C-alpha cells in the first residue's frame, strides 16, 4: 500500500463479541519490528482469529517477503498491490469524490491530484515515500465454512485498507501539521471513545460488502 504519510492512525469497528489488541507503534514497539493487531472472538477462542502485521519500509513496494516468512508460507501467500489512486479498486458503495486521491489537491503541501503515473513521479522526486506492507492472517476453524469465511474476511480487509489510505491522503491538510504530542493525545482519546462504544454504544463503521 503506497502512502505519502509517515504517521498512520487506525479506525476499527468493535463489537461486544470480539476483542482487538493493538500495540501502539509510537510507545512500545521496538524499531525494526512490525506493528501487530490481533482480533479475537471470545466464543470460538483459538479457532477464530484475525492477525494483521504491518511493516513500514522506505521503498516503492519492491521488497520481497518483507515479513520474513518461511519459504513454504511465502509460496502460499497472495500479494495484493493497492493503488490508492486507482478508481477501479474501489467499490461503488464506498466511492466518495472528496476522498478520491485522483481529484484531491492539498493546499498546504501542494500534493495531488495523483495521476496514473504518480508512483513513478514520486520515486523520481525528492519527496519522502514509504510502503505499508500488511500481512493478514485469518484462521476460522468451522467445518464447511472455513474457506468461504476466510476468503471473505481477506476481501473485506483489502477493502478496508484501500478506503482508509485513500481517506488518509485526502485528509492530508487536517493532519500534516500535527505534532507527536498531538498524535499521542488523539490515540488516547480514540481508545477511550472505542472503549465507550464497545461497552455502551452501537456498532459503527464500514459495513461488510457482498460476498
TrEMBL record:
Residues 36-191 form the Phosphatidylinositol transfer protein N-terminal domain. It is found in: Endoplasmic reticulum membrane; Golgi apparatus membrane. Keywords: Acetylation, Endoplasmic reticulum, Golgi apparatus, Lipid transport, Lipid-binding, Membrane, Transport. Its main location: endoplasmic reticulum. One of its GO terms (molecular function) is phosphatidylcholine binding. InterPro entries: PI_transfer, PI_transfer_N, START-like_dom_sf. Transmembrane segments: none annotated. It catalyses: a 1,2-diacyl-sn-glycero-3-phosphocholine(in) = a 1,2-diacyl-sn-glycero-3-phosphocholine(out); an N-(acyl)-sphingosylphosphocholine(in) = an N-(acyl)-sphingosylphosphocholine(out); a 1,2-diacyl-sn-glycero-3-phospho-(1D-myo-inositol)(in) = a 1,2-diacyl-sn-glycero-3-phospho-(1D-myo-inositol)(out). Residues 192-211 are annotated as: Disordered. The keyword Coiled coil does not apply. The keyword Membrane applies. One of its GO terms (cellular component) is endoplasmic reticulum membrane. Belongs to the PtdIns transfer protein family. PI transfer class I subfamily. This is Phosphatidylinositol transfer protein beta isoform. It comes from Denticeps clupeoides. The gene is pitpnbl.
Amino acid at each position: 500500500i503506497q502512502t505519502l504519510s509517515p504517521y498512520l492512525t487506525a479506525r476499527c469497528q468493535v463489537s461486544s463479541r470480539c476483542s482487538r489488541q493493538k500495540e501502539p507503534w509510537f510507545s512500545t514497539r521496538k524499531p525494526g519490528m512490525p506493528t501487530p493487531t490481533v482480533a479475537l472472538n471470545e466464543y470460538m477462542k483459538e479457532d477464530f482469529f484475525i492477525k494483521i502485521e504491518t511493516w513500514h519500509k522506505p521503498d516503492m513496494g519492491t521488497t520481497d517477503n518483507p515479513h520474513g516468512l518461511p519459504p513454504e508460507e511465502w509460496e502460499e501467500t497472495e500479494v495484493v498491490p493497492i493503488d490508492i489512486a486507482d478508481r477501479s479498486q474501489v467499490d461503488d458503495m464506498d466511492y466518495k469524490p472528496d476522498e478520491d486521491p485522483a481529484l484531491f489537491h492539498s493546499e498546504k503541501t501542494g500534493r495531488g491530484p495523483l495521476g496514473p503515473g504518480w508512483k513513478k513521479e514520486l520515486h523520481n522526486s525528492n519527496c519522502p515515500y514509504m510502503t505499508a506492507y500488511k500481512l493478514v492472517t485469518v484462521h476460522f476453524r468451522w467445518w464447511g465454512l472455513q474457506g468461504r469465511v476466510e476468503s471473505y474476511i481477506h476481501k473485506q480487509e483489502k477493502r478496508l485498507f484501500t478506503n482508509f489510505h485513500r481517506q488518509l491522503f485526502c485528509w492530508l491538510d487536517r493532519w500534516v501539521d500535527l505534532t507527536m504530542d498531538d498524535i499521542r493525545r488523539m490515540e488516547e482519546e480514540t481508545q477511550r471513545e472505542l472503549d465507550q462504544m464497545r461497552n455502551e454504544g452501537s456498532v459503527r463503521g464500514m459495513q461488510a460488502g457482498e460476498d
